[in-house]
Design a protein that fits this description.
Blueprint: E1 2-5, E2 11-15, H1 18-24, E3 43-46, E4 61-64, E5 67-70
Antiparallel strand pairs: 1-2, 1-3, 4-5
């Protein structure tokens, strides 16, 4: 899946169709700008759904050093 994270490591964009990404953008070459056609200022991160099984609750997580970290509550 393709994630876009801001400078605070918060997830601001998520695209979960891994089959589409592999077909249209091989070797993790997709960019958030392929989906948002403006200067978004987000960094791209690629994770598999196995690495982020709770992705449906993405608002509760940050991505730090390429790893999913649950926000402190």
């Amino acid at each position: 899946m393709l994630l876009g994270i801001d400078s605070d490591k918060n997830i601001k964009f998520i695209f979960t169709d891994e089959g589409y990404l592999k077909k249209k953008y091989p070797k993790n070459s997709a960019k958030v700008s392929d989906f948002w056609k403006f200067d978004h200022g987000l960094a791209e991160v690629f994770l598999s759904q196995d690495e982020f099984p709770d992705y449906r609750n993405w608002q509760n997580y940050k991505i730090i050093d390429g790893k999913v970290v649950k926000n402190a509550e």
